[in-house]
């Protein structure tokens, strides 16, 4: 703990102040990570391909290999196939001792795991790139340091909350006849039980770490169930965690991997076990809703589909706005849960520093900005990455059925991986009455420029569609403080985080650990924010003892 | 706010330190509350009897009068009969402006309500006495200052948590090429919606205030649905709240009363409304379970039945132990959710400062201690109070069917109220195999002395019965630190708060605001503690906005 105390204290302070903070540098540069880090990481990744992933654990159901890179190659890594009974039994056995490990020791273990993951960031970057389809730099950042920072943020939140409400006290009640009635009291933050973290295909580490690390610090064991398409990043994580636990003389089964054949449906099985008291899930609305309705014995946090919204009213920086939006639409081919989908513009057009722009002109200019961004093959690879899954490809390729295509998707060749599935963003024009189309999520590089009567209608539609279908992000462009205030009002009612007039190097789809909340829990897209007090507080109970002192 | 700042700051500090703290003196003495407070309060209460309770509010479904004092008289106070549609509509209307009232202003309103309630403590004491059957002094304390302190504790928890996670920040990310990327961010704690607080018959204010005041500070409106047998204490509370809101220029419908005819089933109706996003309930396991299963749109907190347990292993203070236990069993005729029910003693007896006592002797001595305590007519009224409800009377009167009666209940005359339903505690001997009897709650003055093989079996049965049927309290007597440690271990596993070797003026059924948690949420007796972080964190979302600075 002594070694990790400065990291932890700084993180706790950062969570409170919510300014810029990072413990893990986001730049994949040699000056930060060392001369050898990149080639060593790449070699480590390549050595895993086609090989068995060494991971001991309970159960004996053979091995599974389920991953194919969106860039082409089959990974061929094999993992132990999850045996639900054995996993639950092992996790429950590990719970008794983990609950009795002090919060300080649990936090130290968590930070040590994160530090080691950080040193493996290059290996992780390749693993994330070739499971999610993210570009290498994005995979490095989002899958490595940014995910590690989010994990540390969860450690800090949990550690801070436990420290604030648990511990010891001396209660001394003055008595009328002099002397005091004195009690010594102890409050223990008691983990609720076995946690189940169900990872997604697109952000296997970033979306799982807050839950995994909050679970650890609050005294819960965790079974990590990766998406069959993105096992390796979480297998690496679990292996590192088990190493740290073992070296600390603790039960490695505090963290377990549940890799499965897609037909095993092990997530649904595990989620209903009475021992499983916490479930975290990122993925489809259908399965998220099912978990909420059925895993009644557990504290369930889900992140599901949504209709991220941009309201364009006016701007004093037309080109920077277009560039910012183009980047947001293109980044990882719109496959972020934070990517904008619905852009509302008033029928009368928008006032800009380049004069009034009608909806048609805005749509065309936005399309041109996107085409310009992704037209350069060098940038294409870094911005778009590859498309994950046939569902996204099918949706993009059928986009013309949705409305008038302003920008048609293309399938350019990837400069490095000839078999990569690459698509440039599609932009479709819709009128406000086509809520049947834009009122639901079209996951992937598909967005809509929707003509509203005026900005009032745009804000009303933001409020209504997000209240109904949820959203992780919303964004507004206006030169009017009055419009911005009304947008904030609408966002507050809809319960969505709002970015205003982003034109510089901050994008609506990016949230910064220790500062930005991700999601709110106030609309159907997610039940909680990462990492707000509810997300952490649901993971432990306070159990007290007292005696005369 | 300025006026209430010292009260609030001290309360926030107290919640962290968890030592002795109180803002509202518990002594009903003239030196504290003034010469006239007692007669003025009594007169105010008497003026309400047989009269219409003046409370404006939405709806027009006539009036209801449902209260009869456990001490005899029908109260005859009439209240507006709840109109669920009108209440939900009014509460939802009030929500928009209340959400936009600042946390500081909301906290100030909450503290002002509590301060005014404190000044009405004598009137409240009579109202609580004649609805719950508590003795006057207990009704004054538990219904007045102790409830107010619990309310203030909830205000402090909520205010502290909002202050810690919401507010504003400046985010400045250093850029490689110099200069910083600077964002101004704002985080708003957004109330989840309409809250429903369902009161109980025995502690209408104490069990409702944490939810009501946590709701207020976190930006939720609240409909207070009292038990038909204990309306007046909550009607007084709601009336005071509405006065404060109105005087502050705010919508009084932020707090509404839902008095009902018992056949109206308005609680079940309200709990399922989509606008109702928070439900708090104290009462039967059946209805609590129903709420948890059905009010899926809401954050539901329940407190239900349990089997509070005492493990007697050994003691160095036999008589003080007996006196302490006798008091705990007798207080309010065992009608506290914290009253002990199951006392486990080893078959070989217990070592004491008066030599070894076998189970029979312990049971007889405990019976004698209880008989001695309640045998004095002067103390009888102050300790026992009156029995609330025919269900309790029926259970007590049939106690001989449960096992061998060590102490038979009696029905002494109340010195002041000839029609009061008074019962002294019954104690029944059972063997450990009669889990069919002691494994469920027998609400009222009924307890069991249960012979276990040894203390190990006692602890095993504590662990098992509480895991299965829940408990709000547990208690252990032992001179062995090893046994105490094992008892703490068992209590931690069962998720129950443990009192150890209580012999002086602290009783297992009493919990101190700002210091003791009440319940844990870790066993079936309750989903949360009052007032732990989960209890508060479930009541708001964090919604963020950000822009370039």
Descriptive account of the structure:
- The structure is a homodimer of 549-residue chains.
- The first copy, chain A, folds into 2 domains: 20-174 and 183-304 and 529-548, Aldehyde Dehydrogenase, Chain A, domain 1; 309-500, 3-Layer(aba) Sandwich (Aldehyde Dehydrogenase, Chain A, domain 2), CATH 3.40.309.
- In chain A, 42% of the residues lie in helices and 17% in strands.
- Chain A contains 20 helices and 17 strands.
- Chain A has a 7-stranded mixed sheet with strand order 12-13-14-11-10-15-16. In chain A, strands 7-6-5-8-9 form a 5-stranded parallel sheet, sandwiched between helices.
- In chain A, strand 6 (221-225), helix 10 and strand 7 (255-257) form a beta-alpha-beta unit.
- At the A-B interface, helix 4, helix 8, strand 3, strand 4 and helix 19 of A face helix 8, strand 3, strand 4, helix 19 and strand 16 of B.
Summarize the SSE layout with pairings:
The structure is a homodimer of 549-residue chains.
Chain A: H1 5-17, H2 30-33, H3 37-48, E1 63-64, E2 79-80, H4 84-100, H5 103-119, H6 121-132, H7 136-143, H8 145-165, E3 167-174, E4 180-191, E5 194-198, H9 209-217, E6 221-225, H10 232-247, E7 255-257, H11 266-271, E8 276-282, H12 285-294, E9 299-303, E10 309-312, H13 318-330, E11 342-346, H14 359-375, H15 377-384, H16 390-397, E12 404-407, E13 426-431, H17 435-438, E14 446-452, H18 455-469, E15 473-477, H19 481-494, E16 497-500, H20 533-537, E17 540-548
Parallel strand pairs in A: 5-6, 5-8, 6-7, 8-9, 10-11, 10-15, 11-14, 13-14, 15-16
Antiparallel strand pairs in A: 1-2, 3-4, 4-17, 12-13
Helix pairs in contact in A: 1-8, 3-6, 5-8, 5-10, 6-7, 7-8, 8-9, 13-14, 18-19
